[in-house]
Amino acid sequence: MLPLIVVATPAEAERLLDLKARVVVSGVGAVAAALATARALEAQEAGLVLSAGIGGAYPASGLHPGGLAVSSWIIQADLGAWDGDQFLDFAGLGLSVLPDSPHTGHFVCWPHAPEVARRTDAGLGPTLTLSSVTGTVRAAAALERRFPSALTEGMEGAGVAHAALLAGVPVLEVRGVSNPVGPRDRAAWQIPQALAATRRGVAAALDLWEELGG
């Protein structure tokens, strides 16, 4: 079974098409990613699912543009409710993303993620999924307070992870860093470097998957 790579855009897919895996372009956002992943897994089984692409790095992560993040957890960070200035997550609300068992939208990742991070000199930690890109220092700091070890944010990882969980397939998110999370400064984004980092992480994960018996 070939691994499945899910990316949001054709530009992210372009650097990965020659790798030994199926590449699916989902469109942007967790819903689009979940639907595309579920459809791809229904059409053909996979032994590993990779959510891959570029994203922003939180200031405390120590990652800079051109760096690489490998997920230990994939967290749907904006699921919950606001009570004034306090954010209540699904654990506090007693809600679940699954119909028949507790699950707060914190998805555990492929157990071999630490080895992928070691091989690529990447950061290893939680990657956050949000429905909108964070655009202020204050909002970035608030997310870091809620998730002190968070590395990056993207818009698809939790959707991919949710579909993989339902299919019983291990999942990993790989994010090349294009910019710091915070005020939006497109002129400073390093997209080619982030795409190169993404490829490096995906290739390392695929190599390891094959070494482990694929």
What does it look like?
- The chain has a single domain (4-211), classed as Nucleoside phosphorylase domain (Rossmann fold), CATH 3.40.50.1580.
- It has helices at residues 10-14, 30-43, 90-93, 113-120, 137-146, 157-167, 191-211, and strands spanning 4-7, 22-25, 49-57, 68-76, 80-83, 86-89, 106-108, 123-129, 152-154, 171-180.
- With 214 residues, it is α/β, with parallel strands linked by helices.
- The strands form 2 sheets. The chain has a 5-stranded mixed β-barrel.
- Helix 2 (30-43) packs parallel to helix 6 (157-167) and helix 4 packs across helix 7 (191-211).
Number of H- or I-type helical stretches: 7
H/E series, N to C? Answer: EHEHEEEEHEHEHEHEH
CATH-derived topology = Rossmann fold
Which sheet architecture does the biggest sheet show? 5 strands, mixed, barrel
By secondary-structure content and strand pairing, the structural class works out as alpha/beta
Low-confidence stretches: none
Radius of gyration: 16 Å
Helix content: 25-40%
Number-wise, the strands total 10
Broad shape = globular
| Side-by-side strand order of the widest sheet | 3-9-8-4-10
CATH homology superfamily name: Nucleoside phosphorylase domain
The CATH level-2 architecture is identified as: 3-Layer(aba) Sandwich
Range of strand content: 25-35%
CATH class: Alpha Beta
Q: Kindly, what is the distance between the CA atoms of the first and last residues, rounded to a whole number of angstroms?
A: 7 Å
Overall pLDDT metric: 95
- Count of domains: 1
